[in-house]
Amino acid sequence: MNTKATALMNNYARLPIAFTHGEGVYLFDSAGKAYLDALAGIAVCGLGHAHPELAQTLSEQAARLWHVSNLFEIPEQASAAEKIAALSGMDKVMFCNSGAEANEAAIKLSRLHARQKGIDRPAIISFYGGFHGRTFGAMAATANPKIRRGFEPHLNDFIHLPFNDIAAVEAQRYRPDIVAVMLECLQGEGGIYPVDKDYLRRIRQLCDERGWLLICDEVQIGICRSGKWFGYQHYDIQPDIITLAKGLGNGLPVGACAARGAAAEYFQAGLHGSTFAGTPLVMSVVNKTLDIYQRDRIAEHVQTTADYLRRQLQRRLGDLPLLKEIRGQGLMIGIELQQPVPQLVEKGLNKGVIFNITAEKVIRLLPPLIFKLEHADELVEKLYQILSTC
Ligand SMILES: *Cc1c(COP(=O)(O)O)cnc(C)c1O
Q: Could you name the Gene Ontology cellular component terms for this entry (predicted)?
């Protein structure tokens, strides 16, 4: 197969490798070489590759019914919504096709919230280092100039503030046009920076006092990656809106926006939707994915594996001169280096391990959540071999 198809647009810097199949936490190329996957398709394939039960669910549904449109009832959506609501403490759920779309839904709910408050030109606080997606609303929420440049003018709803700086939020307290605060409990693309507990709790208080919606973008950390079902569950707070996507369908494209209280009722018929959102095909896999996560106690498994992996990383890599800091939560781990290392990802591929670099010098580990201790050992050893010779 031609992997360098010249008819493709150039919007990705692709590595020169095409995988032919996967099994569990490994991917294989056409030469049969195995790669330990510590990326999981960017925090997507939590249950690994070619999960037999998911493959069976998908193929059975594929033989039954794919798509009917949201003009009709889709029981698979209703049951997945029940599950997500019960796990998250939210009241209602709406499905879409990606993380960016989930955030668009949250932004539209914020606009409807503004109408309730009689605000014509509403503002939403979001944070430097955050990432919310590439569509116009989600891109406007994202402060990173690399993502915004060239696409001006941007939607101007967003006020970008420094992350984990409560004084910066307090300073906006009496601005009358603010309707929401949008954040990641652990900034993923921004370099694996967790939110401070007191800070997040204070933001929750401010939201209550001021009638702002607290929107947690759980697209990357949600669905057990942190060792709990959702990132905010580490902080004993409840957001008003959450957005989900990456891990939700184990690789089928799906997103969700869940809300509670008044915000859960803002979308009435005709106000928002998508042709493809929540097809029986995709939702059958979402239901099965959620069931397997519960049955196999994936959240607890992540805690155990992550504790072990973090300790081993610290023990084996901690003294390397190149290493600056290891941080993160659950199986969302950042290894910050003193300086960027050219071709580091390629060096990993040569050694048969897949990881990603974010924020230029942070090795980001997002392995499948079914990672076992032996996989953690293999990963640490391979990283040591690579980093000790850089
Ligand atoms: C990946 C990501 C998004 C965007 O999701 P897409 O499915 O790529 O649109 C939004 N927010 C966060 C936190 C993400 O990690």
A: cytoplasm
pLDDT of 324 reads 98
- Residue 291 labeled ligand binder: no
82 contacts 186 by C-beta, under 8 angstroms:
no
Q: Among the atoms of ligand 1, which is closest to the Cα of residue 138?
A: 10
* CATH 3.40.640.10 fits domain 65-296: yes
The pLDDT assigned to 6 comes to: 87
- Going from N- to C-terminal start, the domains of the chain cover 65-296
What pLDDT sits at residue 5? 59
Of 216, 298, 297, 223, nearest in space to 254 by CA: 223
What are the tokens at 67? 């798509």
| Residue nearest to ligand 1 atom 6, measured at CA | 99
Ligand 1 centroid from CA 190, angstroms: 12
With b meaning 16 or more CB within 10 Å and e meaning fewer, what string describes 108-123?
bbbbbbbeeeeeeebb
- Mutating to test ligand 1, I would choose from 131, 184, 216 the residue with most ligand atoms within 8 A of its C-beta, which is 131
Cβ < 6 A, ligand 1 pocket: 98-100, 103, 131-133, 184, 188-189, 217, 219-220, 245-246
N- to C-terminal Cα separation, the chain = 34
Contacting residues for 116 by C-beta, under 8 A, at least 6 apart: 262, 266
- The segments of the chain whose pLDDT lies below 50 read none
